[in-house]
Amino acid sequence: MDSRHNPVNRPSARPVVRLKTAYAHRFGLVCAFRLDRQGGGEALQWADLDADADPELHSAQGPVWIHLDLKHANAQRWLSTHSGIDPLVVDALTAARVTPRFEQRGRSLLLILKGINFRQGGLPMDMVTLRLWSDGERVISGRHEPVRAASDLQRSLVKGQGPTDVGDLICQCADLMTQHMEELIFEQFDEAHRIGHLRNAKPTEDLVAELAHLRRAMIRMRHFLGPQRRALERLAASHQPWLSENNRERAGEVVHQCTQYIEGLDAAQRISEITQEEILQRSTEKTERRLFSLTVITAIFLPLTFITGLLGVNLAGIPDATDRWAFLLLCLFLGLLVAAQLWYLRRKGWL
């Protein structure tokens, strides 16, 4: 980052959290804590941050975590004008559509993660996003929709069981975001097995609809898990001085966990593909049997239709029309013809 646009990256600069009175408003601030470095933290409000930031909020008082609701104009305005973050990073933090990524410039880093949507009435596969920026002494995070990982982190700080420093906070966020995917991925894996077991007992149309819904959900999950694993790998390999070796090891464990989830999704997708192939094969076989039955029926009745049609169009009249036994003899002949056809088809193995 250019130090002219990012004063927090200048060696002589201290992290500044300036909140003017106009921004000392509860809207836009989900929560804020000053960590006590022992697993707890002091809860802060806009007004508290404003008072503490006059003129500076020094790191000696403890690192600060500020979690914002990015849908509110106050939060976006504060990020743009008072956070001291590079404008390009602010754009990445506030963008409506983002994918998991990791970027670092100087002493600061940007981490964007996807997580499960636990909001009531929402679909789990409609994933939510947590955006984090840190310079080692502040963590500024934001979301558009509620993120359970941030709520869990907030509760752990209240109980005194939370992160002790900035690196620990970021790694805990990554860990929680990944852990919350486990239940959904296992559900999808079990659902793929369930549909596979029902392929011979349930109507094909219902199974195809369920399978299509499941595969769409898995594709969406897989679409974000790949970039998320790469972002976490870059976090684990980061050489930021304020990231400890324990932080990197924990990030590596999250990468391993994410890899397991990807492998589980890939296995579930393979199971669903095999199931779909079997369902399509069964449907094709059923269609072929029906077509074969129609073909046999056509083959049997075609000669009968030809003979009766030929008799019907005889301009000189139907032969022996006045003979009382003619119709019975014709029926007997047609019956023998059908019997001969059935014998021939059975001999050829078509029946």
Automatic annotation (TrEMBL):
Presence of the UniProt keyword Amino-acid biosynthesis in the record: no
Gene Ontology CC, one term: plasma membrane
Alphabetically ordered keywords of this record: Cell inner membrane, Cell membrane, Ion transport, Membrane, Transmembrane, Transmembrane helix, Transport, Zinc
Membrane topology listed for this record: Multi-pass membrane protein
Superkingdom of origin: Bacteria
One Pfam family hit: CorA
Subcellular location: Cell membrane
InterPro entries according to UniProt: CorA_cytoplasmic_dom (IPR045861), CorA_TM1_TM2 (IPR045863), MgTranspt_CorA/ZnTranspt_ZntB (IPR002523)
GO molecular function: cobalt ion binding; cobalt ion transmembrane transporter activity; magnesium ion binding; magnesium ion transmembrane transporter activity
The name this protein goes by in its record: Zinc transporter ZntB
Organism of this sequence: Halochromatium salexigens
